[in-house]
Amino acid sequence: DMRNKMWLLVLMLLICMGVSGCSLSRSYSYSKSVAEISGSSSSWTGEKRKEIEFEKGQTVTFRYQSKWDRGDLSIQLIGPRGEVVHEFEVNKQANLEKEIREEGIYVIRISGTDFKGSYQVEW
After folding, report:
1. What's 83's DSSP letter?
2. Which of 55, 69, 65 is closest to 110 using CA atoms?
3. Residue 24 burial (CB < 10 Å; 0-12/13-18/19+)?
4. CA 66, CA 92: separation in Å to the nearest integer?
5. Rounded distance, CA 44 to CA 117, Å?
6. 2 φ, ψ to 5°?
7. Can you give the pLDDT at residue 11?
8. Which residue has the higher pLDDT, 66 or 3?
9. 3-state SS of the chain: helix, strand, coil percent to 5?
10. Residue from 69, 66, 71 nearest 88 by CA
11. How many CB atoms lie within 10 A of CB 45?
12. Which are the contacts of 4, defined by CB distance < 8 A and separation ≥ 6?
C-alpha cells in the first residue's frame, strides 16, 4: 500500500520533470494520506502489526491516543532489527517526533490481553 503510493509519487515526479515549465506546488508535497492503525474492543487478546518503510534522517511525527478501561495494552515501535525503538504510553493522547537513525522496515505492534478500550496511532 505505502510502496504503491511511493511509486506513484516517483512516477508523477518523473513525468512532471519531463514536461517543460512544470513546477511542483508546496501543497502537493503534503498530499500524502495519513497512515494509521487503530481499533477498539470490549475484550481483545492478540496482536496487530503495521509495517512502515522509513528512510534514514527522516523525522516522523506520531500522533497517538489510547483509552484504557481494563486488561493489558502495549503499543510499540519496533526497529528494522527487531529492537523496541519506542514504547507509547497507554491511556494518554500525545505527539512524538522521532528521527529515524536507520533506514528500513519499522513495525507498529499493538498487543493486548483481555483489553477493553480503544487506541489510534497516526504517522
Report:
1. -
2. 65
3. exposed
4. 6
5. 9
6. -65, -40
7. 67
8. 66
9. 15, 55, 25
10. 66
11. 12
12. none
